[in-house]
Amino acid sequence: MSAADNFVMELQHPADVDVDCAAGRSERAKWLLNSPDPPPPLQELFTSIKDTVLPPPKSKKVLRPHNRCFFFLQGLFPILKWGRNYKATKFKNDFIAGLTLASLCIPQSIGYANLAKLDPQYGLYTSVVPPLIYALMGSSREIAIGPVAVISLLLSAMISKVIDPSIDPVNYTRFVFTVTFFTGTFQALFGFFRLGFLVDFLSHAAIVGFIGGAAIVIGLQQLKGLFGISHFTTKTDLVSVIGAVVKALHHHQWSPLNFVIGCSFLIFILITRFIGRRNKKLFWLPAIAPLTSVILSTTIVYLAKADKHGVKIVKHFKGGLNPISIHQLNFGSPYVGEAAKIGLICALIALTEAIAVGRSLASLKGYHLDGNKEMVAMGFMNVIGSFTSCYTATGSFSRSAVNFSAGCETVVSNIVMAITVLICLLLFTKLLYYTPLAILASIILSALPGLIDLNEAYNIWKVDKLDFIICIAAFFGVLFGSVEIGLLLAVFISFAKIILNSIKPSTEVLGRLPGTDIFCNMVQYPMASKISGILVVHINSGLLCFANANFIRERILNLVVDENGIEGGGLRVLVLDMTNVMNIDTSGIHAVEELQKKLISQGVELAVANPNWQVINKMKASKFIEKIGSGWIFQSVADAVNASVCLKMNVLNSC
Amino acid sequence: MSAADNFVMELQHPADVDVDCAAGRSERAKWLLNSPDPPPPLQELFTSIKDTVLPPPKSKKVLRPHNRCFFFLQGLFPILKWGRNYKATKFKNDFIAGLTLASLCIPQSIGYANLAKLDPQYGLYTSVVPPLIYALMGSSREIAIGPVAVISLLLSAMISKVIDPSIDPVNYTRFVFTVTFFTGTFQALFGFFRLGFLVDFLSHAAIVGFIGGAAIVIGLQQLKGLFGISHFTTKTDLVSVIGAVVKALHHHQWSPLNFVIGCSFLIFILITRFIGRRNKKLFWLPAIAPLTSVILSTTIVYLAKADKHGVKIVKHFKGGLNPISIHQLNFGSPYVGEAAKIGLICALIALTEAIAVGRSLASLKGYHLDGNKEMVAMGFMNVIGSFTSCYTATGSFSRSAVNFSAGCETVVSNIVMAITVLICLLLFTKLLYYTPLAILASIILSALPGLIDLNEAYNIWKVDKLDFIICIAAFFGVLFGSVEIGLLLAVFISFAKIILNSIKPSTEVLGRLPGTDIFCNMVQYPMASKISGILVVHINSGLLCFANANFIRERILNLVVDENGIEGGGLRVLVLDMTNVMNIDTSGIHAVEELQKKLISQGVELAVANPNWQVINKMKASKFIEKIGSGWIFQSVADAVNASVCLKMNVLNSC
């Protein structure tokens, strides 16, 4: 009679000492073995997709059609909801916040348009229509909509490769509108189909690294304006840009006057920011500093006729209302695929930035932001923007913070800002003819330090070294490669990390915690103790699959050899704790089968403890349970060890 | 005093009823919180690489240098070990097996050379040198070395894209040798650096699908020879090949005589195989049938001068010993990178096939095969093969099975086979001038059914539907795309499956199994029961990371809303069972932090049960433990639930 038979008999006719315990064990094992089939993976996938894509069932109240329609409209246009309770006191706060925002937004918009290699008026256009659309559809109260630095850089870096803006500015602008249209369409689709989780595919660490790298790249691009360099590189990486700057300085192709103007106003803006930080009541000082700088420097240049002495000025500046640009969208060109690709990337990055800033401000004020609704709002504002000469807009980090500090109450501050910018477009653009480019460079430069989050990078380093590698890879990828390389690297490493984590072939030897039935890693819990003759091995991997199954099998066999070597062949049962193995594939099942065969040939029995639902189901389907005998499957490690101890004692008794 | 403070006090000054139990709980929680730091991930990675790459420490006996050297040589050349005990009785068996093998090998080698678009003698060369080298270095006793169908197809399909063999056959042949050299080098390197696990990266399901697809593609290629078609497509996909055949048949560019000869001998071979299956003693009948067919058909064609009537014959056939080809290797060409790439793919596929067949036969005879040593042997045989006009050789499925049935004892049967092939090369090649190409096609066709494993595909379907999708993708990828597309698809889906499995955002509500402290999925175990006021949620994902953290947080919050909705706000504690979460990243920790904040705002406490070693470590590093209070971390779900019950009772008492 083999040891296994003995054991099965013992389970059926337990010795008097452990009647209750053995009966409980076998009943639990029966529960495990007879558990209903888990939902098949395809159905599970569909359910998961359905749960993801369909809105969660909200209140179970039955609504009349009329009400339902109204609720739907309210969902799409939140302004219908909060607009009814809007009061004059709120408007006062929003008005002040909106004016503060506009004074920061006008110079930044011109600068970002310059960064996106567009004429300056397009920056202002983008600060008019998208904020108005967002005010109707968005639900964040603090976010400030408009052009932002990272998206401007992304657009110019990626579109310049397709159409050179210095050669064909008209088609470049048309291409930018087409990309903006795709960006908006993708964003709206993501929202409609509730694909908000797509934004999560850029991990937190990757975003910190990417935005930090992008900030430095944007800063480097500003050296052109700051030094007044005429011939600059179209590449964005550190080496090319520094090379171009050194070359220009060496050949005296720059104008020191630009540098003096740019630097003095940069210092002015930084000092106001310092004062604003020290004294919270003076928050408006750093907010209006850029506009003040623009007005001052423009006046100085105009009066001194400095443009005749080498100071580069804006020059082209078309005023007036946003012109219609729907006829400029170009879907027939061979570039439409490229436009869709760039649109997709911009959509994801823009949403990431907007939702990050929106969520963090919403949680400060204690309300919840629905990511999917925000996406629909952002999508519509960009689609309509692309019809009205705007390029891609999103929520800006720096301006949203200013909006928040300025005490905005609702999204009305965005409306005030948009109207102010519109008035500026209608009346004052001629005055901006003499604005020096260096001042735009220094305004952009002054906004960058907020994008480089060293503190968060340090936190990431402390918590997760691999996450830090992702962060650093994104950072250096953007800095030394290009924007796309940085993004691709970050996404690639993020997913490689998931694969590495899931298949990392790792096993742990478990011991019993004193006074309990809990079995734990003996290295993590030094107080845990082994049971002689029984080796409990825990598979510390979420999957037992083709990529790690053979390795884990060999590792366990080596453990058995080590164990038998020390104790002189005393090992009788190997308990395989499968708690953490959430799924197994055919290679994994083959490996466990082979493991069992080899163990039997060495006189060791294999007991399987706590296989998961999917695992037990596949073991049944592959007849593995019949091969090892259902008596060797246990509901928990404790059950398996207790049964093995009984078995060992029985064998000893019979000896 | 908040509920949490109450609870912590309760832990420190437990009520009389649960003095022991509460003390045990808090001690276990302390063990968990004070567990030493896990090895840092980079060190863990290095240990894992070291364990992988370095050989496992064998016996601890101290060896004298002389013995050590001998053991090393024995390890490299196993023939030194078993050769000393080799006896004449064994040789008799090996001799018969070797002759049987040769009679099958000669026609197959010529056919496979034809498939690889090489002159027929190269197939025979490949059956001479590699088997001899393997006999010195390999440790499998049954494997039959030589050219195989899948590798021949791979070579011709991939190299034809670089150099067209019908235009430049000389450079094509040189390129094949260069690829073979790279294949051997990669194989030897994999073996030396113990990278055997690389072979595992093609999952079992992918291999079944890939080889099945490749078999059909090979069969389709044989239609050229079978119909005697002159102009054939160079593509390998089903659509192109069927198109070419239909076109040829339609335009009468084929010769029916070829078809008659090919089909009649194909039927002859299949009948002998059927007889061999029925009567195991006649195993030699199917083995010699191909050679018999070749001799018969060649004689018929020669006597009937059928080559004048449209029957295509071999013609070019250079006899003699393997010529040296080391000077033909071409590392200077622009194609060297391409050669290395194809070499790498061939190395992996060849090793997969050889190790699969070697291992399964070894386990039948009950000995263990060291994958890494086999790789070194295969590597050397291919490198030396590339110096002596051989193309890539590996272990053949069909011939190894014949070798096994013929009763081979050692690898000497390979030596006998090689010498027989060599004699044939020296003496009989002139006789093969008139061999019809159709006969080669029918020999290859007859070997294909063994490669299509419908039974295994059905098993995969039963056990794992997603694995079956991988299998089918590889199959159809090869069939309708190309060999590379099939392989890439299979590898891509395999890894996508790992990602999907690891990040699939899934949560389960747990209940207590009656009479135990075990908590289980309430859907899987219908007998499990809930504890009122406490919701136990299990995160059923190996990773809590950027890709699923937000989703899981929302899912849990929805569960809380559902629970509170039903019980009218009775929920007091949410126990988060993190048993299966093996790792967490910064996004995951943020998500748990946010979850806790939102729960607190709804009056629900968060208890974390059984965080893994890496998880508790990262929670410490990110100060999460300080935020939720160390009293809310438990070593097991049961501890967390029991503590929560105590807390609830305390609160009720104080009311």
UniProtKB/TrEMBL annotation, chains A, B:
SUPFAM superfamilies (alphabetical): SpoIIaa-like
Superkingdom: Eukaryota
InterPro entries: S04_transporter_CS, SLC26A/SulP_dom, SLC26A/SulP_fam, STAS_dom, STAS_dom_sf
Record-linked NCBIfam families: sulP
GO cellular component assignments: membrane
Protein known as: STAS domain-containing protein
Keyword tags: Membrane, Transmembrane, Transmembrane helix, Transport
Keyword Lipid biosynthesis found: no
Domain STAS positions: 541-644
Organism expressing this protein natively: Penstemon smallii
Subcellular location: Membrane
Pfam families in UniProt: STAS (PF01740), Sulfate_transp (PF00916)
Membrane topology of this protein: Multi-pass membrane protein
TM region(s), chain numbering: 143-163, 175-195, 201-220, 256-275, 282-304, 376-398, 410-428, 433-452, 472-496
